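Researcher: For the record, we're logging two predictions in this thread. I'll number them. Prediction 1 follows.
Model: Prediction 1, sequence and structure:
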Amino acid sequence: MLFDTPGPGKVRPIWHDRFATGEDAVWRSLTLEGAPARGGTTLLSVMYCVNGTGGCGQEFLRRNRNRTWTWIRQTWFDQLPQGFLGRIRHGTRIDPHSLRGEAGFYGDGDANCCPSRVLSVELALRGDSLVLIRHSVAASPEK
């Protein structure tokens, strides 16, 4: 959970999420990273990872000039070609500064540990959404 301090001695929740892959799912890490955005706002990345092979998730919030927060939709997932989303097993990592990112891109015969390809994306922040500008798929450097 992420809190804001709207005034002295006051705390207000502004983001929360629950990611579980069963009874024993435990968060391994929660990493916050901010980047300047248009109009004097700040884009906040919230990366959360679980133990084991659950992978990571990433959410985005925008801190507006008036100290309010806006949840940023990741519409770029819906803009990927049909079938792509099912080949991303363990989340993506988007750099909030450049809005470029990567994800393991699994083939039918790939082991859970080792995707044979990498999906690279370039995004843009439009209004309250991250939208897809371009994408590419290449062989994984580990293969």
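Researcher: Logged. Prediction 2.
Model: Prediction 2, sequence and structure:
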Amino acid sequence: MAGIYIHIPFCKSRCIYCDFYSSTQTEHINNLIEAECTELKIRADANHEVIETIYFGGGTPSLLKAGQLSQILNTIYHYYSVAEDAEITLEANPDDVSKDKILDYVKLGINRISLGIQSFDDKILEFLSRRHNASKAEQVVNEIYDSGIKNISIDLIYGIPQMSAESWQMSLKKAVHLPVKHISAYHLTIEEGTPLSHLVKEKNIAEVTEETSILHFRMLRETLLNKNFEHYEVSNFSLPGWKSKHNSSYWSGKKYIGIGPSAHSFDGSTRTWNTSSLFLYINSINNKSKYYEEEHLSTHDIFNEYLLTRLRTNIGGYFDELMSIDKNLFETWHRNYLLFNKNNLIKEKDNNFYVAENDWIILDYILKEIIV
């Protein structure tokens, strides 16, 4: 069992680009914690595998108090078998984190912090409606490191309208000079219904050009690779030995349990997703009614998901594993694959096939064309 994901959907305010399920009604945190602990108990009956990772995602898990985090962790340790060296991650916003909170995290056994920094340019942070500034972000990274939590990851965003190449380069240089072991870097996506998409529709801002996106991607890779970071997944870089164990499990097809509103789970053949409503989730749990939907994956689905996840990584996939899913689908796929291999967009070595890291900028196109 890869691990357990705990969704904490609460935010003090919403960023202009975010379309994840979230709520600003933080007065309901205690009710949610109770419901999530109940779901953990329910899900434990069907799980007898060792939990390797625990991940608090959001939303903003750093809004929770130590007692609330402890309540969830105690439930997990009581009802599940957790590996002694389990990776326990908490996503945090810099403005929520204080020295006292960090000490609480250490006492709780949280050994990995993922900070949503996004940029070290105050003008960009203001544009994105982030609540912290660059100085606070740097301060928090150093305080976390000094507390004894060495496994620090930060999030950065590129492809932001109005962000210059100089601004992006400055953020990258600051990032690699901080004591961080992992950097997740995402190209900004303009999602329908967000304030950002409204600005674009009203032509108050313009989307970045393809040339700018490519430039930012190349700057990202050049800066981080020069500092010994490994580009191990499309959006993720780490120093040697510091890959995200939790997220890596998603890309390698391991099982996982998702707890909380809108959280997803996967048991190898069935995918479930909880209702994306805070109140419906809490009420359904309390009333012992169904709070999720499920989909039984077909062989065709499993085959394509293998391609969609493995080709996101620098490891890639293996011909024998793909053929073992379905030989007929493999033969159909392989005819198409040969065209991409001939054009050098997918490479192979022995039993292994993969997309070169330099070509990950067009990975969406490759995946769209290569799936069966």
